[in-house]
């Protein structure tokens, strides 16, 4: 099957490079897993900037700080296999614009979300056509945002939110066998990033919102060696590559000013996970609270980025009064 | 144009005055024209609406190697146009190529497919004489084209501009840009086929090896003889295929220059792991040591510059009677030199200017011997009008050569 | 040198059509033009006072790909400037040009369309004339190959094109403007100027100025100028169509 609208590679297909190190797994791989250097409740730094894409009505660019192991690998490269990766994405908002004539009447703003990975975003090359997980992300993002936007202010209008992921989070450490974790955990971090970036872009486009919505991730991990005694721990803003077993993870879209959640996505089994004695609540409650805490952290970055956008807007339009 | 001129000339009542941003939207042509031809009394220089001189390019910046999962990557910003390019290398086993056993090149004689691309050999051999003399010759360069080893794709469905629907198949513009990049990669022969080959040297057995060993010792100086012997058993087991994906993150005019600069910067950044044929596993295996990986050795540094022509008369081209023929055109040109200028050639047009012009010129130039030699044109394209003829093209080639110097510095610093 | 052969209106259902063969490049193109027609997906916001020109190129053997989109863009860009889309009956309507590559070598992946481009342009022009679409001027085009020794080959065969150092396509209007120039492969500007001169001679004949300032078109090594050859095709067709009127006393 060739795609006539793109340039195709060799008809027989190609194979990703196989590294010798991953073939003889037993030997040197155990030492290679990146270790989490942050405290359990310490978040990664977020770089968030608005207004980089002038042709869009609103835009933002988000980047996570590389983990300690990745930063080390960058500064003194030894191994071609990156230990982990850090989220990088660009978000644009087009609209509000009139709906196409063929569309049915809508009294509210019609929100369209679109999330696409760049072909080079993940460890495995992504196709050009959206796959199930990308569509899934789009749906989650839409639910998260629909609760924030004051949609009835723009009847018969549409708003397109497009996110291009330039670099995604890993689902697991590359040295682990592909089926050692049951779920792709990286997608949850991606969703949290998408929510925060989209919120900044929507504010940059000056769409009325109830609050700035931020995404946050928390996970319960059973880590540190094969010690049976070790209790599973709650970690905020987990990088899946840094953990051997993630029991369950949760991403929320949270509005701090109203203390409301518009989207929860919880994966894995949190009921059986017995946290240490210092946790008084059951697994999933702790997980939710953790994710909310992470979202609060992202919110402070978000607020700063939006303030910057507002300053730029005020500076750009000195004759704003003339323009009505 | 008439109402615009009137608005500019007479002191209109305050209710009719428009801020510049609105004027630019309502009367784009008059707006740009007013900038380019200010009234002689005002003593203002002719300048574009975006503040640039006609032959001035936008501020360009490049940044490479920031994407983790790529073999090479680059972000190029050309004013407000941003292109991200990632190069991913994958492996194509020769046993997977249907035509491989037929077209298999024997090292002694050049393959039948090898002749096809010989065309460019002589000229580019001169072009980068020093770097190429160690290579036997580019007659197997056709493998890049025959086996589709370079796969560039450009995507505009990233929300980069309002007109492109995300998720839709590539627009005609995206397709034609992808094609232009592929054609330019082939015609400039930027990537060497040798860099993409993964060789396998079967272990030598018995007396033959001894013999060769002796030979080598005897003819220490005269190496080529020994090398030919060595080559006899060597076979290509696989090729690297470079997937070159370009995402235009932000589009504000001139996507081709930005995309090509991004491709060039990303290829310059590309590292390929050392790969060998593993007999036990019957597959190609790579080493993960950075020290063993090598960079691509590219041929030259072709750099593209795009221009557009802005006509003072918005109606030129459809009022059939007024089109002067080429001879008259030249005379007209000379006579009006001192007076009113009729058209401007604008370098590196932004989106606003692209919308107001039809004639496009794209020049891709390279300079021999790393900038010291003479300027070589790799591609010259002009269509959509008749304003630009030989004389103008010569000027544009000179501007492009100047641009080459600037961009070379930018690419080398990143 | 064997000149190109062409015929006007071989298709009866289209508003205008033409077929064109160039023996030296081996290209054989069949083109049709429908104009003015109502376009289904017409957008009012886009230049409401002008006609929309659409070009489709269909390769003979394989389904169309990115290369076709590219060459369509070139042809469209050039013809948009020549078609008088603001004439009565054309504004907001469409001019649809379909060019099918009937014979000759197909263009491979990532190959340039340069060898086929003049034939495509000529077919489009003849089909437009056959459909009586108003044009500001006519044009003629040619492709030239320069090999490593600097020898210029006019309208090279696919084999010659493959061994050439650089390929150049030129189109000149009937008024002598340079309408299109597409060149690829390493070359210097001086080479381009030489090729440009030669192309001008092929399309328009050598310009010979006699002492009294008369400008005459003379034939030379390149035989009849292309401009004239195309004109003759149209004249012949008109003569044939109006034979009843001319021959009638």
UniProtKB/TrEMBL annotation, chain A:
Where do the Exoribonuclease phosphorolytic domain residues begin and end? Answer: 42-207
Q: Keywords, A to Z? A: Cytoplasm, Exosome, Nucleus, RNA-binding, rRNA processing
Q: Output one GO BP term.
A: rRNA processing
Q: Which GO terms describe its cellular component?
A: cytoplasmic exosome (RNase complex); nuclear exosome (RNase complex); nucleolus
| Record's subcellular location | Cytoplasm; Nucleus
Q: Which InterPro entries match?
A: ExoRNase_PH_dom1, PNPase/RNase_PH_dom_sf, Ribosomal_Su5_D2-typ_SF, RNase_PH
Family membership: Belongs to the RNase PH family.
Put simply, this protein is called 3' exoribonuclease family, domain 1-domain-containing protein
What species does this protein belong to?
Answer: Aspergillus coremiiformis
Lineage, uppermost ranks: Eukaryota, Fungi, Dikarya, Ascomycota, Pezizomycotina
TrEMBL record, chain B:
Question: GO MF annotations for this entry?
Answer: mRNA 3'-UTR AU-rich region binding
Q: Which InterPro entries match?
A: ExoRNase_PH_dom1, ExoRNase_PH_dom2_sf, Exosome_comp_Rrp42_subfam, PNPase/RNase_PH_dom_sf, Ribosomal_Su5_D2-typ_SF
**Bias (Acidic residues) ranges:** 133-143
Provide the Gene Ontology terms for cellular component. cytoplasmic exosome (RNase complex); nuclear exosome (RNase complex); nucleolus; ribosome
Compartments reported by the entry: Cytoplasm; Nucleus, Nucleolus
Q: Which Gene3D superfamilies match?
A: GHMP Kinase, N-terminal domain (3.30.230.70)
Listed transmembrane segments: none
Report the main location listed first in the record.
cytoplasm
Q: Where is this region: Disordered?
A: 101-143
What biological process terms from GO does the record include? exonucleolytic trimming to generate mature 3'-end of 5.8S rRNA from tricistronic rRNA transcript (SSU-rRNA, 5.8S rRNA, LSU-rRNA); nuclear mRNA surveillance; nuclear polyadenylation-dependent rRNA catabolic process; rRNA catabolic process; TRAMP-dependent tRNA surveillance pathway; U1 snRNA 3'-end processing; U4 snRNA 3'-end processing; U5 snRNA 3'-end processing
Q: Where is the composition biased (Polar residues)?
A: 101-114
Q: Which domain of life is it from?
A: Eukaryota
Question: What keywords tag this UniProt record?
Answer: Cytoplasm, Exosome, Nucleus, Ribonucleoprotein, Ribosomal protein, RNA-binding, rRNA processing
Enumerate the spans annotated as Exoribonuclease phosphorolytic domain: 56-96, 127-272
* Family membership noted in the UniProt record: Belongs to the RNase PH family.
This one is known as: Ribosomal RNA-processing protein 43
**Species of provenance:** Aspergillus coremiiformis
From TrEMBL, chain C:
Q: Name one GO molecular function term.
A: RNA binding
Which protein is depicted?
Exosome complex subunit Rrp46
The keyword Zinc-finger is annotated on this UniProt entry: no
Cellular component aspect of the GO annotation: cytoplasmic exosome (RNase complex); nuclear exosome (RNase complex); nucleolus
- Supply the alphabetized keyword list: Exosome, Nucleus, rRNA processing
Return the annotated region ranges for Disordered: 1-20
Please report the organism this UniProt entry assigns to the protein.
Aspergillus coremiiformis
Which Gene3D superfamilies does its entry note?
GHMP Kinase, N-terminal domain
- Top-level taxon of the source organism: Eukaryota
Instruction: Name where it's found.
Output: Nucleus
Feature: compositional bias, Polar residues = 1-10
Gene Ontology terms: biological process: nuclear mRNA surveillance; poly(A)-dependent snoRNA 3'-end processing; rRNA catabolic process; rRNA processing; U4 snRNA 3'-end processing
């Amino acid at each position: 099957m060739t795609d006539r609208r793109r340039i195709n590679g060799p008809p027989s297909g190609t194979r990703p490079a196989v590294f010798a190190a991953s073939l003889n797994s037993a030997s040197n791989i155990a030492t290679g897993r990146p270790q989490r250097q942050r405290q359990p409740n310490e978040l990664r730094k977020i770089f968030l900037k608005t207004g980089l894409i002038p042709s869009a009505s609103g835009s933002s660019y988000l980047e996570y700080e590389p983990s300690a192991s990745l930063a080390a690998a960058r500064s003194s490269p030894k191994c071609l296999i990156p230990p982990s990766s850090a989220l990088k994405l660009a978000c644009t908002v087009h609209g509000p614009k009139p709906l196409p004539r063929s569309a049915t009447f809508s009294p509210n703003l019609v929100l369209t979300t679109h999330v696409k990975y760049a072909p080079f975003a993940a460890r495995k090359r992504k196709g050009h056509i959206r796959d199930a997980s990308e569509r899934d992300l789009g749906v989650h993002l839409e639910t998260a945002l629909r609760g924030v936007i004051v949609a009835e202010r723009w009847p018969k209008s549409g708003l397109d939110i497009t996110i291009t992921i330039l670099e995604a989070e890993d689902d697991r450490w590359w040295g682990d066998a592909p089926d050692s974790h049951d779920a792709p955990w990286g997608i949850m971090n991606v969703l949290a990033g998408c929510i925060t970036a989209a919120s900044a872009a929507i504010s940059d486009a000056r769409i009325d919102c109830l609050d700035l919505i931020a995404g946050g991730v928390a996970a319960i991990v059973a880590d540190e060696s094969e010690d049976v005694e070790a209790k599973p721990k709650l970690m905020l803003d987990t990088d899946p590559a840094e953990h051997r077993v993630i029991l369950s993870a949760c991403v929320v879209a949270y509005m701090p000013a109203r203390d409301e959640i518009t989207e929860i996505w919880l994966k894995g089994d949190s009921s059986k996970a017995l946290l240490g004695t210092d946790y008084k609540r059951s697994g999933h409650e702790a997980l939710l609270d953790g994710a909310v805490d992470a979202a609060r952290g992202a919110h402070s970055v978000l607020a700063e980025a939006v303030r910057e956008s507002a300053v730029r807007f005020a500076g750009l339009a000195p004759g704003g009064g003339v323009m009505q | 144009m008439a109402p615009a001129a009137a608005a500019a000339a007479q002191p209109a009542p305050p209710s009719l005055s428009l801020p510049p941003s609105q004027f630019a939207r309502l009367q784009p042509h008059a707006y740009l024209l007013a900038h380019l031809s200010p009234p002689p009394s005002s003593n203002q220089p002719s300048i574009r609406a975006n503040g640039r001189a006609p032959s001035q390019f936008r501020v360009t910046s490049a940044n490479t190697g920031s994407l983790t999962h790529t073999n090479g990557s680059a972000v190029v910003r050309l004013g407000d146009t941003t292109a991200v390019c990632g190069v991913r290398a994958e492996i194509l086993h020769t046993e997977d190529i249907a035509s491989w056993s037929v077209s298999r090149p024997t090292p002694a004689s050049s393959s039948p497919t090898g002749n096809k691309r010989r065309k460019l050999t002589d000229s580019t051999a001169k072009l980068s004489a020093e770097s190429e003399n160690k290579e036997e010759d580019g007659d197997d360069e056709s493998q890049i084209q025959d086996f589709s080893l370079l796969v560039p794709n450009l995507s505009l469905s990233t929300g980069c501009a309002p007109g492109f629907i995300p998720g839709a198949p590539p627009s005609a513009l995206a397709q034609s840009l992808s094609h232009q990049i592929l054609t330019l990669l082939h015609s400039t022969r930027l990537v060497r086929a040798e860099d993409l080959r993964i060789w396998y040297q079967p272990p030598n057995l018995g007396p033959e090896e001894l013999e060769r060993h002796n030979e080598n010792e005897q003819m220490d100086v005269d190496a080529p003889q020994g090398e030919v012997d060595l080559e006899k058993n060597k076979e290509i087991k696989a090729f690297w295929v470079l997937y070159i994906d370009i995402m235009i993150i932000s589009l504000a005019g001139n996507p081709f220059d930005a995309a090509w600069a991004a491709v060039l910067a990303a290829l310059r950044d590309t590292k390929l792991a050392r790969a060998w044929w593993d007999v036990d596993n019957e597959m190609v295996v790579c080493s993960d040591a950075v020290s063993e990986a090598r960079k691509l050795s590219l041929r030259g540094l072709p750099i593209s510059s795009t221009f557009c022509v802005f006509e003072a008369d918005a109606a030129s081209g459809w009022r059939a009677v007024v089109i002067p023929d080429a001879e008259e055109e030249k005379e007209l040109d000379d006579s009006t030199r001192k007076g009113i200028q009729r058209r401007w050639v604008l370098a590196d047009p932004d989106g606003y200017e692209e919308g107001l012009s039809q004639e496009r010129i794209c020049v891709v130039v390279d300079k021999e011997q790393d900038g010291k030699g003479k300027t070589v044109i790799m591609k010259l394209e002009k269509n959509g009008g008749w304003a630009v003829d030989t004389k103008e093209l010569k000027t544009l080639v000179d501007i492009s050569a100047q641009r080459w110097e600037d961009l070379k510095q930018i690419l080398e610093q990143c | 040198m064997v000149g190109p052969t062409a015929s006007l209106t071989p298709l009866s259902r289209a508003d205008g059509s033409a077929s064109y063969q160039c023996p030296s490049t081996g290209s054989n193109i069949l083109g049709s033009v429908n104009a003015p027609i109502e376009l289904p997906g017409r957008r009012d916001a886009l230049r409401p006072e002008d006609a929309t020109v659409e070009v489709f190129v269909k390769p003979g053997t394989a389904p169309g790909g990115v290369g076709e989109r590219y060459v369509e863009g070139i042809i469209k860009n050039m013809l948009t400037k020549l078609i008088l889309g603001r004439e009565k009956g054309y504004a907001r309507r469409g001019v649809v040009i379909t060019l099918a590559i009937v014979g000759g070598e197909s263009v491979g992946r990532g190959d340039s369309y340069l060898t086929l481009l003049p034939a495509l342009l000529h077919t489009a022009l003849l089909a437009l004339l056959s459909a009586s679409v108003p044009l500001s001027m006519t044009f003629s085009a040619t492709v030239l190959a320069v090999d490593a020794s600097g020898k210029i080959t006019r309208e090279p065969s696919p084999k010659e094109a493959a061994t050439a150092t650089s390929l150049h396509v030129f189109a000149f209007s009937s008024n002598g403007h340079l309408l299109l120039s597409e060149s690829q492969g390493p070359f210097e500007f001086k080479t381009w100027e030489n090729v440009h001169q030669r192309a001008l001679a092929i399309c328009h004949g050598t310009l010979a100025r006699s002492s009294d300032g008369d400008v005459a078109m003379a034939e030379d090594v390149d035989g009849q100028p292309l401009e004239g050859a195309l004109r003759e095709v149209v004249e012949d067709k008109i003569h044939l169509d109006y034979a009843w009127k001319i021959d009638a006393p």
